[in-house]
Amino acid sequence: SSDSNSSDTTAVDTTPSTEPSVAVTLLRVGMNKPLQEVGPYTTADQGGLGILGNAGEYLCFSNNSFELEPRVAESWAANSDSTVWTFKIRQGITFHNGQALDAEDVVQTFLKHLDEANKSQAAGALSGILQAAGVKKVDDYTVEFTLDAPTGGFPFIVSSDTYNLIILPRDWTSNWTSDFIGCGPWIMESYSVEEGVTFKRNPNYWDPTRQPAFETMECTFFTSGASSVTQLLAGELDAVTFVDPTAATSLPTDQFTLQIANTITHLQVHLGCDAGVFKDKRVRQAAALTLDRPAIIDGLLQGYGDLGNDSPMAPAYATTDQSVEQRVKDIAKAKELMADAGVADGFDVTLESFKRDDIDLLGQVIQSSFKEIGINVTLNITEGFGYYDQAWLNSELGITDYGHRGIPNVYLNRAYKSTGDWNAAHYKSPAFDAAADKFMTSADFAVQQEASKEIQEILLEDTPIITPYFANTITPVSNKLVGFRTTGMGHFDAAGAVII
Amino acid sequence: MTTPTLELINLEVAYRVRGIDRSVLRGVSLAIAPGEAYGLVGESGCGKSTAAFAAMRYLPRNGSITSGSIQFEGRDLVTMNGAEVRNLRSNAISMVYQNPIGALNPTIRVGDQITEVFKLNGLSASDAAAKTEQALVHVQIADPLRVMRRYPHQLSGGMAQRVVIAMALASNPRLLVLDEPTTGLDATVEAEVLDLVRTLRSETGTSVLFISHNLGVIRTMCDRVGVLYAGTIVEEGETQKILSNPSHPYTVGLLRCIPKGGLQKRQYRLDTIPGSPPSLGAELTGCVFVDRCTIVQDICRNETPPLFDLGGGHFSRCFFHEQAVNLPRSTEGTGVAQRGGEYVSNTNESLLALNHVTKTFKQDGNDVRVLTEIALHLGAGETLGLVGESGSGKTTLARLVLGLTDPDPGSTISLDGTSLGASLADRNAAEVGAVQIVFQNPDSALNRRHSVTRIVARAVEKLSGLSKHSANERARKLLTDMSVDPLLHSVKPAQLSGGLKQRVAIARSFAGNPRLVVCDEPTSALDVSVQATILNLLADLQAAENVSYLFISHDLGVVRYLSDRIAVLYLGRIMELGPAETVFHGPHHPYTEALVSSIPVIDGSARERIRLGGEIPSPANPPLGCVLHPRCPRMAGSGVEHLCTSQEPELAEVEAGHFMRCHIPIGQLRQIQRPS
Amino acid sequence: MTDPGSPLIATDKVARGERIKVRRERLALLRKNKAFIAGVLLLGFWVICSIVGNLVTPHDPRQINLMATNLSPSGTNFFGTDSLGRDVFSRVIVGARPILFMSIGATVIGTVLGTTIGLIAGYYKGVVDALIMRLVDALSAIPVIVLALLAVATLERPSNFLTLVIIGIVFTPIIARTVRAAVLGETELDYVAAARLRTEKVPYILAVEVLPNVLPPIIVEFTVRLGYAIFAIATLSFLGAGVQIGSPNWGSQVAEHYSKMYGGIWWSTMFPAGAIATLAIGVNLIADGLMEVFDL
Amino acid sequence: MARYIIRRLLLAVVTLWLVTAVVFFTTHILPGNVALRILGPFAQRSAIDSLNEELGMNRPVFTQYTDWIGGVLHGDLGTSLKYNQPVAKILFPALVYSLKLAALAFVLLVPLSILGGIVAALNRGKIADRIITIGGLSAAMVPEFVWAVILVLVFGIQFSLFPVTAIPKDGASVFGQIYPLILPAICLVLVLFGYVARITRAGVIEALDADYTRTAVLKGIPRQQVIRKHVLRNALLPTIAVIASQISYLVGGLVAVEIIFNYPGFGLALRTSVTYRDFPMLQASVLVVAAIIVLVQVLADIIFIILNPRIRQKVSN
Ligand SMILES: Nc1ncnc2c1ncn2[C@@H]1O[C@H](COP(=O)(O)OP(=O)(O)OP(=O)(O)O)[C@@H](O)[C@H]1O
Ligand SMILES: Nc1ncnc2c1ncn2[C@@H]1O[C@H](COP(=O)(O)OP(=O)(O)OP(=O)(O)O)[C@@H](O)[C@H]1O
Ligand SMILES: [Mg+2]
Ligand SMILES: [Mg+2]
Q1: Which of A54, A105, A398, C130 is the most buried (most CB within 10 A)?
Q2: What is the pLDDT of residue A12?
Q3: How many CB atoms sit inside 10 A of residue D106's CB?
Q4: D154 touches chain C (CB under 8 A)
Q5: Cα distances (angstroms) measured from residue B475 to each of B464, B505, B509
Q6: Atom of ligand 2 nearest to the CA of B569
Q7: Dihedral through CA A29, CA A34, CA A39, CA A44, nearest 10?
Q8: Is residue B409 predicted with pLDDT exceeding 60?
Q9: Residue A139: exposed, middle, or buried by beta-carbon count in 10 A (0-12, 13-18, 19+)?
Q10: Which parts of chain C sit beneath pLDDT 70?
Q11: What is the spatial distance between Cα B216 and Cα D33, in angstroms, rounded to a whole number?
């Protein structure tokens, strides 16, 4: 119970030691509330994937330094043209129900996600890359993936970046929320969709170095980061997975550490390229030139963000070419372009999106920024998913939110390529498609970097989508807590965490 | 002289209204000797109740005693502290007032409410209960134990008032204050309550302060009487003296207002007191009555008259008290007949005819028949008086005639031989206009948001189809005819006195040249002085317009004055129907007899009271046989008991034009009823 | 055949003077009622803001300044700035218009509908009444806010006008109930029978005869409802139902910023909140004063 | 008597039935893409279409209504679109939380406001009266969320006397359970005190002015006893009914308060389901709440009847 534990913490204070305190048996984490059914197929948000990642285990784990950590897969390798990938499965892993894990479970997991009937959220990530036929069990501890097209970043695609892909027992069918079965470091003890989830440590977890130091992890759901911060202040939480910048800045630094992670989480402001007011790319460039990006990052993110240069090739990616010139606010130039395009005195346009704090704010900033060159924006920001229902893929101007990915493939593939099913900008550029393919197929760093440069330049020129910034994640943790990790994707990893 | 039980000395009371003190009692002085019954009469609003409550040292929150003193057995109530006052109330002074049901706590059994008083005087629960039972027996309640267990709403008005009286007497007080204890009760019930009080007094010998606006009641109850006007006692003396030779114009006026001694509109026109009493807290210089006095002189306006001692404990507050007796009338005295107002009451050609008129109400599930087989006819220019205890069906009958309520199928109501549609919807404008009504309460009958002219004009417009303009013209004329001053035509009803309101209502009912006007207790909400003017007006109008009246009233005196014929209603049945005088002189139906004998008369000898036993049965389940038989004062020993209890008598013509619904032969009735 | 009028009329002239005096005394009473005056001042202030607000604001209430976000109150920004660097003071001033417009609109709709229904139900009684009252019950069984949320939720496109209409409809049954009660009493009065006795049609009776007499309760109900409307609309916009993003709307200002309070940024929440409170209280004080005068 | 109660219950049923209609058809003014709401924006189009088919969203609204009612009658409140879990499973724990909060609010409210009302009535027109009535009603006019932020700022943040969130701690001591609920409860009390106090006051004043009270005084009964036995007894009766009618305001208030205090009650659930158009959830919660309110009001009426002999008799024949 809370009071017993808090008294423990104080007990610890009196005898500070670097040794993991045996006394502290409870870790209290504040996390975002999952807003739909939590499960391998259904989860589509940070809250849900947070739970998946703790109860389950991925083939490999995509960390904050854009590297992959081997997990269920010990190692992996590709053939020459990276169309066939072979994964070595770790031995001695058991599921929470005691069942031992081997290649069969991995194969079944993938087949399940690839099965249309299950309507898996992961299906999208795998589409065009992997089909059921391509998944093959070589031996009890080897799985082979044969891809439709060469894909350099395949391991990332099957890593925790595609957060639905936790390895499931081969025969698993049931409603996942009833048991949260997996082979992760934490075993679900109780779960309530409104309140939170409680885990107890998995004594049989395969990795002794990541064996949880806490008996129990109590995760409380929050709808607003702010109220979680107050709990943190009240000493009722040891850590909050993610909070918004203003809330974070309010925390006293002597008690809390803010763990900042550069992520690729971003908002895409799409400009309809095939018709309408933004058909002319000069207009699109003009629009992009009105944004004062550093100010936006300061104002909206309290500085916790990376500049966006109107492409998904974020500064954080190793492959990104940092030499490409950053677009900066330039009203004069913008007006010029508008004039050239014959719309010197601007026009009216409606910006479509859905209600969410950051989108509300960016929407208003765009409104006032575009105004400077005579573009009058009407905000039509609807509750819930109405936006994705109607406006998303057929609007001249809209904001769409994109989660973090260890590699940009998903964005390129689905949002930018002519064939992309999320191509809200209706952007069609053979040049870009070529560059994108080049980037994605190659597994070679140099080639990727070269491709990336092309992509960045093409997109900066065409500007189908404005990408003002890439947000950082902010994870406030009590100074007493060390080893608590989060990822840009939204996973949090308390396995290695201890209270000192 | 022994110290009086109660003495008010120059008592002045004021009510604070909208932040201003308004004087109500302007120096009232009176003294009640031990064992004496003192009456206080006066028009509504003159301060009777205020005086009564002052005597209990109980005033409304906004009331205050501004000067003077209240002595109870020589001790000053005004300066007494709360405990002492409470003590007095619990064992020396008690009060009974209007609306007995309201006076009892709805959520406590009546028994407990009485025992409370005994307990207060230190009796044990069991003794108190026993005492309560006695007390109820004392006030002639048949089975006290059952009544004790009842809740107030389960009692009839009369019963409740007995309980209240029992409660008042429980502390066997030395002073009993009765504020209009019978107002709102039926004449028969009233008479019984009064009898009760009288007997109790003779037993206990408590002094009584008896308040009423009815001189008749005062006469039967009180040794001495004070006449209160505008918070001042204008005349005081022994009841008999005051009534026989009043010496203040106001008292004289009051007495002349009242239709009495079987006077009829034909021979005699009621006198009135013009105007209305000064409003609450009005600044009065000189005599309080100046505004309405017909013998007023300058002195009256400038000087406040002292209380002149006329000897024999008779006082009058009038400079000209000698002239008061032969005060000039404020209206012509001669009845309409003499004034050549051709007054035809041709009962042969009937204007209105009712046959087999029956009305049944659905009351949650079960039928309640409130009118049974009513057959009536009413000649042009004739007045039919309709009397009967409350709940007997008078208003319902009226509403049927008007078409406001649908009669049961099979009933026929015809006007000039052509039968009228059951409901208003089925009647044409002419028919609707031909049958109009004057309601009991003008405040409710006039739309308080509309101007006087508008109220009348709209009626004219709709009923005689005139243009808006000419309708206005006609309305003004009508109003002026009703002696509503043109100055007041534009005002809203709220700005008129009760009498004027009723005039406006009458004006409206005559807007469509009606053939028949139903008057449902048109004066029972008014003071006698005003009542007189209204009655005169109605009489005059009838003479002028040859209109017929269906005149409903509790007040038999009034009915008798105005009616040519009278119908007596009991439990929705006509018990007796005949020429007014016959019905009053008898031989009457036993029920009528009881009614008539219960009128508290102001002059002539009080006749022997004929009592109706028991309570009025509910129309939901009327008794078998003659509906009266359980209460009939004449059934016993009539020799026809078996008939009375078994079969319902017909309404038979016992003499020419005199109908009666009774098994007892007329002769026999004449025998019994011959005044001994 | 007229009684000698003079004295009679004399006294009634007095009576008439009385009535005029009464009215004067009532007004005096109202003027003495400090609470009422306070209410008038408060409401008056916001009404003025809602009319000329846009002209007098020191800054453009919509002007974003990302360089000056969350500034604490100062000489330039009396109420500080919000999370987009907009001037809170200006936003509070112009925020008066939408809420006043909406709450008055909603109350008017509710009062008109409610009065009509109430009149009809109260006059016909019986089946009509029963039916209407059932529906009224049903609607009043759902808390106003919840019902409004429910309705607003179904509208993908938020709009002040729709919200206004919804609140109005939600209020209808409540007002209908009050009016009906009053009408039930009125129709017992004889002047209604009198009207029928001169072949008046029902609509006339209701509109011309009955309505004026049930006006005082309606007026009071109107002011009371207005208070509730402010309450409801503020709450709805706080819940984010039916407000456009960035519109200077008190409720949403609070919603957008209250989380900042925990970080010590209280001004962007407290000033709009205070505005709501003062407006609501002002209206209530007026309602209270009126009730006293109409002694309801 | 029994007949009346039955009639009252039947009426309640009719009311509830109408509620279902109101709720259902309001939420179906615009159908919206249900499957998309379940699967979220990044799901495959094909998946969305097939799910819509499975859910029978293409059936006529009326059939959907009858099916829904059928379900409700069999105790099946439907399945949450967002959580793909039985609504009941989510709703009832939430209701229990809200109930705790509401209960605490009522425990504070009822005695306070009734006392306030009585004091006001007994000091009619005096300063105490003005303060209670005007103060109370003014407070009542200020939305809960405004009170919430004010209280949070003052007591939660400035003086940090109370926790600013009301996350329930199961297994905590009774005090530990109540303590975090005090601020939210106070918000609700502030908003309801005015009404209840005013109603009580009106009732007491009516009783004070009643003839029977005068009778009691004139009997010489001590003031305290008059007030206890004669005034309050009659005055507090109507108050019962009114307090019951306030429950609907209370519930309304829960929504805003629970959001600010992040309290996982019905209000929070409702808010979520509104934001994400989780209509089955929305319908169910509104319906259940309406049912509770109606029930409470019926009970209040019945109690009222039983306690009040005048009416008791009227209805029993
Ligand atoms: N509490 C009060 N506040 C203000 N005025 C009052 C109050 N009580 C009575 N009055 C007024 O004082 C005057 C005298 O009232 P009171 O009841 O004593 O007259 P009354 O002779 O008893 O009249 P009634 O015959 O109608 O009972 C009336 O004009 C009445 O309107
Ligand atoms: N609308 C109604 N529904 C049911 N019963 C009614 C209705 N109107 C009158 N009654 C009943 O009919 C009976 C006669 O009522 P009515 O008003 O005609 O008597 P009344 O002689 O006019 O009485 P009062 O002298 O008190 O005016 C009463 O018992 C009354 O309860
Ligand atoms: Mg009186
Ligand atoms: Mg009658």
Answers
A1: A54
A2: 36
A3: 19
A4: no
A5: 11, 12, 11
A6: 21
A7: -120
A8: yes
A9: exposed
A10: 1-22, 155-158, 242, 294-296
A11: 86
Interface test with D, best of B84, B107, B109 (most D CBs within 10 A): B107
C262/A98: higher pLDDT: A98
At residue A143, does pLDDT exceed 90? yes
Chain B residues with CB under 8 Å of C10 CB are 275, 291
Q: How many CA atoms lie within 13 A of D202 on its CB side?
A: 13
Q: Which chains touch B (3 or more CB pairs under 8 A)?
A: C, D
Helix (H, G, I), strand (E, B) or coil at B438: strand
Sign of the CA dihedral with B554 first, then B558, B563, and B566 last: positive
Q: Rg (Cα) of chain C, in Å, rounded?
A: 24
Quote the longest CA-to-CA distance of chain B.
Answer: 77
CA distance C173 to C17: 41
Determine contact, residues C85/C74, Cβ cutoff 8 Å: no
CA of B390 to the centre of ligand 2 (A): 8
Give me the half-sphere count of Cα atoms (radius 13 Å) on the Cβ side of residue B236.
20
Q: Residue B675: what pLDDT?
A: 64
Q: Taking residues B444-464, what's their average pLDDT? A: 91
Interval B65-123: pLDDT, tens = 999 999 999 899 888 888 999 989 988 899 998 888 889 988 889 999 999 989 888 88
Q: Name, in order, each residue with C-beta under 8 angstroms of B136's C-beta and a sequence gap of 6 or more.
A: B114, B144, B147, B148, B162, B163, B166
pLDDT of residue D171: 63
Q: What is the per-residue pLDDT for A138?
A: 94
Kind plus residue range of the DSSP H or E element containing D103: helix D87-122
At residue D81, the pLDDT reads 77
pLDDT, tens digit, 9 for 90 and up, residues B284-326: 888 988 888 888 888 888 888 988 888 888 999 998 888 887 7
Which one has a higher pLDDT value, B434 or D85? B434
pLDDT of residue A370: 95
CA of D204 to the centre of ligand 3 (A): 24
- What one-character DSSP code corresponds to residue D57? T
Q: What is the pLDDT of residue B338?
A: 55
Of the candidates D51, D172, D272, which has its C-beta nearest A1's C-beta? D172
- CA B674 – CA B544 distance, rounded (Å): 39
Q: Is C230 on the interface with D (CB under 8 A)?
A: yes
CA separation, residue A65 to residues A179, A320, A418, B88 (Å): 32, 14, 31, 97
Structure tokens at C95: 């925020």
Answer whether C273 touches D (CB < 8 Å).
yes
How many Å apart are CA A352 and CA A387, to the nearest integer? 7
Tell me the two tokens of residue B434: 């031909």
Task: Tell me what pLDDT residue A10 has.
Answer: 35
Do residues D112 and D200 touch, judged by C-beta distance below 8 A?
no
Q: Give per-residue pLDDT as tens, B1-39.
A: 578 999 999 999 999 887 788 899 998 999 999 989 999
The count of other CB atoms within 10 Å of the CB of residue C256 is: 23
Sign of CA dihedral B233, B235, B237, B243: negative
pLDDT tens for each residue of D124-160 = 888 999 899 889 988 988 899 899 989 988 888 778 7
Q: Is C27 on the interface with B (CB under 8 A)?
A: no
Return the axis-axis angle of helices C267-293 and C88-124, rounded to nearest 10°. Answer: 30
Q: Quote the distance between the C-alpha of residue B207 and its chain's center.
A: 26
The interface pTM score, or ipTM, of the predicted complex is 0.80
Do you find a cis peptide bond into B665, omega within 30 degrees of 0?
Answer: no
How many whole angstroms separate alpha carbon B456 and alpha carbon B506? 9
* Touching partners of D (3+ C-beta pairs < 8 Å): A, B, C
Contact A192 D36 (CB under 8 A): no
